[in-house]
Write a sequence for this structure.
């Protein structure tokens, strides 16, 4: 493989939400990610983004996003520049609009991990280069690309796969809704009252044909599922809500016992970091059914596919 499958329609585009993609585009992203992964494992080192530079902006702490985008650019023959809010001070020292117009003169792409989704929208509005959502309070499309790469490797066919998401209707959950609309998977979301996924994202996913069910009982959602997925109850920026959230999610801790109720081929997934004793026990993450570290590994290859498709010269 000298070059992965090319998706012509993605060149020069932003990736702010999986809902920005067609089903064929998302399928193509997964295919090219798998090709890049297999090629790397076979010793292929094509410099697909030679002399290209990615600006990486972080408002939030990061292990996986920061590491994998940096390594992805290196493995593609390019370079990354790390910027934090302490460096650029957008919204205080300088406007987001001005930051965008500076970065578009120096780089061929921008990845931003932000608190507010509106920050990404404003950045994309003004930047003349592709903008990638590395995470926002609303969505986490890159994570779900890696997750579905993991599902493709594990199950092959995604159509009809039964996925249960239990916990907070957060950015990861919202992106699960988007992914269900693109893949034909069947998604059941279990969350306490007041912690549902975003209503507009849910309505849009259902309008595109997604099979989504909302329930209150997490064990009901998990029963017979092919995939049991959970995430933290307290995301960065929600620390003041910790006591209220822990009380609301009482009974949502995934234990080894839950895995017995999955389908025969059922697996466990978590996007990390995990808060052991809250949303999941450590034994589950390190159990034979866990694909947690496969997901983390696949962040690298999913990000390579996203960067290549959006930033390639031609």
């Amino acid at each position: 493989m000298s070059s992965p499958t090319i998706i012509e329609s993605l060149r020069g585009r932003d990736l702010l939400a999986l809902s920005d993609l067609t089903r064929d585009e998302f399928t193509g992203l997964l295919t090219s990610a798998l090709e890049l992964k297999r090629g790397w494992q076979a010793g292929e080192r094509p410099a697909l983004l030679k002399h290209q530079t990615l600006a990486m902006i972080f408002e939030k702490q990061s292990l996986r996003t920061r590491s994998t985008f940096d390594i992805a650019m290196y493995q593609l023959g390019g370079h990354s520049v790390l910027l934090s809010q302490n460096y650029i001070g957008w919204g205080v020292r300088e406007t987001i609009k001005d930051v965008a117009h500076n970065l578009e003169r120096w780089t061929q792409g921008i990845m931003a991990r932000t608190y507010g989704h509106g920050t990404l929208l404003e950045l994309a509005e003004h930047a003349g280069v592709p903008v990638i959502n590395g995470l926002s309070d609303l969505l986490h499309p890159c994570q779900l690309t890696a997750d579905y790469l993991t599902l493709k490797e594990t199950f092959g066919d995604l159509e009809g796969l039964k996925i249960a998401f239990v916990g907070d209707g957060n950015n990861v959950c919202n992106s699960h809704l988007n992914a269900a609309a693109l893949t034909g998977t069947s998604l059941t979301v279990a969350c306490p009252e007041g912690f549902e996924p975003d209503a507009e994202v849910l309505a849009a996913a259902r309008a595109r044909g997604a099979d989504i069910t909302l329930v209150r009982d997490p064990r009901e959602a998990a029963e017979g599922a092919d995939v049991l997925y959970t995430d933290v109850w307290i995301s960065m920026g929600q620390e003041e809500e910790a006591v209220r959230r822990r009380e609301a999610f009482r009974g949502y801790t995934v234990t080894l016992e839950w895995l017995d109720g999955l389908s025969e081929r059922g697996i466990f997934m978590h996007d990390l970091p995990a808060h052991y004793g809250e949303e999941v026990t450590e034994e589950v993450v390190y159990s034979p059914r866990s694909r947690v570290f496969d997901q983390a590994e696949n962040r690298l290859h999913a990000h390579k596919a996203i960067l290549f498709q959006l930033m390639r010269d031609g």
In short: The longest strand covers residues 53-58. Residues 8-140+296-311 form a domain with the Rossmann fold fold (CATH 3.40.50.1370).
